[in-house]
Amino acid sequence: xxxxxxxxxxxxVHTYLRISVTERCNLRCRYCMPPNGxxxxxRAEILTFVEIETLAKLFVELGVRxxxxxxxxxxxxxxxxxxxxRLSAIxxxxxxxxxxxxxxxxxxxxxxxxxGVSHLNISLDTLKAEKFQHITFRDNFKETVRGIEKAxxxxxxxxxxxxxxxxxxxxxxxxxxVDFAKALSLKIRFIEYMPFLENGWSEVKxxxxxxxxxxxESKHTLVPLLTNEMVPGPAKDFQxxxxxxxIGFITTMSEHFCGDCNRLRLTADGKLRNCLFGRDxxxxxxxxxxxxxTDIIEDxxxxxxxxxxxxxxxxxxxxxxxxxxxxxxGG
Length: 331
What we know:
This protein has ten helices and twelve strands. It has helices spanning 49-61, 80-88, 105-114, 129-136, 141-154, 174-184, 209-217, 284-289, 294-306, 315-328, and strands at residues 16-20, 66-70, 95-100, 119-123, 158-165, 187-192, 222-224, 235-240, 246-250, 263-266, 271-273, 282-283. By secondary structure, the protein is of the alpha/beta class.
């Protein structure tokens, strides 16, 4: 069946796999991690490089053409550039991307580029050092900026900045970020603040993409960019008129893009998830380590795809889900 694409019940073809290589992170961002941190799994539970490569090859045989390496923070995983080299060598894989907070990019940018990473997303939620320390509980603002500069120097074909926007925290920096993008000819994507387990989400902090866009258009002209229908993406993209900078808005909460979703997610401990907000896990690591055949693993992957939601729950349902999860774990 490997010649058949990964299609769900809503005719969405899945060609994009996000692989988490670690649950560890060297930041403690308030909107991402509970205040008391998370209980880390034993290292033996984390997929090895061989296991990641084995599963990646299977997904590519099933039609995946883009893989993104994520975490946690992927650059805290030892020798992650070696893993990237192994992934980029997979026949038929077209794009190898990586998302990072940029702290270690100063030393890792060139090895990652040499390893075949072409698309780099860097998380940065403020351009002010004191705010950076407040949101991340770490004093690494200068390292992150140096990482961005190094990524541009070594020539990644695509470098994007990801910025989660929260009212009362960084919404006053939207125009500063546009100026930052203009100065470096960058792509910046503003992301709507989403509710995750114990991350303090509230409507008071939420800013919709339309509110963001109105603020930016008070000073800049945004020209819509046509989306390649063959490569669906989550962002509404615009060119800033008169320069090379582009601005994107990821509207997860206000205008979901589930109808075009082509993504699957593999957790650091080998569980396949068909949606960021999904509750079902399909344990590929258990199958792999028990010696299950490729056909059985493939059947499990296809089952996960078939069971994918048509769309994720609305905002109220998501908040309630997170609240119930907190109660379940004693939060």
